[in-house]
Design a protein that fits this description.
Order of helices and strands: HHEHEHEHHHEEEH
Largest sheet: 6 strands, mixed
Structural class: alpha/beta
Shape: globular
Distance between the termini: 26 Å
Low-confidence stretches: 228-232
Length: about 240
């Protein structure tokens, strides 16, 4: 069956998900790369889930294309872990996708610290628009979404119709727990962002990411106090 956003019906998406329901993440990746090959892009934030997916992907397609949306607002630790990943998996094609506007140009056009005055606009300029550029012409993309992460992700399927990007979004880790992710990282001694050791469960741009106390969902600490929980990539 040829799979694409334009041709598959809701019933066919359900049928494919039913077929994959008993499969593990590695099986889903094997299916995905077998189906889409070089047309499959992994948009990776290099968080804990990203480390797991990168390791699994390297077993299926060592030269896979991985895109990091480089807003130029990330923590130094995030860039450090990307360097570690490049060293551990030298065949991976890691692209640092830049926004159209530099931070100086954004400030000139929209004012200083746009992430404070209008975080949705900032995310659109520095993350959503760059990913739209990346996914133009790409049939499918991978994401590390897990159902446990937050209520907004609880119904994520292995294979999803991505209406924002008119693409097929594949999420191999939907059934994984936070404990599963860390057990895998420790078992295979994978590199990871050291901010995770400092109570940062989810790591995005530095101005919009804070440490958390106690146990909430794994999106706690992102855009704290704003009511915003998503950058807009996963609607």
């Amino acid at each position: 069956m040829s799979v694409s956003y334009e041709t598959l019906t809701e019933e066919q998406y359900k049928e494919l998900n039913d077929q994959l329901q008993s499969k593990d993440a590695l099986d889903v990746l094997k299916w995905a790369y077998g189906q889409f090959q070089d047309d499959l892009v992994y948009a990776c934030s290099f968080g804990a889930e990203g480390m797991v997916l990168i390791d699994l992907i390297s077993r299926v397609k060592p030269d896979a294309r991985i895109v990091f949306l480089d807003t130029n607002l990330h923590f130094a630790e995030t860039y450090d872990v990307i360097a570690e990943v490049r060293a551990k998996y030298p065949k991976l094609q890691i692209e640092m996708k830049q926004p159209d506007l530099t931070l100086a140009e954004q400030e000139e056009q929209h004012g200083a610290e746009l992430w404070k005055s209008s975080p949705d606009v900032c995310c659109r300029l520095r993350k959503i628009k760059p990913l739209e550029d990346v996914l133009t012409g790409a049939i499918a993309w991978l994401s590390g979404l897990r159902r446990e992460q937050s209520p907004t992700r609880a119904n994520t399927q292995f294979i999803n119709q991505d209406h924002r990007f008119h693409s097929v979004k594949i999420c191999p880790l939907i059934h994984w727990t936070w404990e599963d992710v860390w057990n895998y990282i420790r078992l295979y001694e994978l590199p990871y962002n050291k901010l995770h050791d400092q109570n940062y469960p989810s790591i995005g741009c530095a101005p919009c990411t804070q440490q958390v106390e106690g146990r909430g969902d794994s999106r706690d600490g992102r855009w704290s106090g704003t009511g915003k929980t998503e950058c807009g990539l996963h609607l």
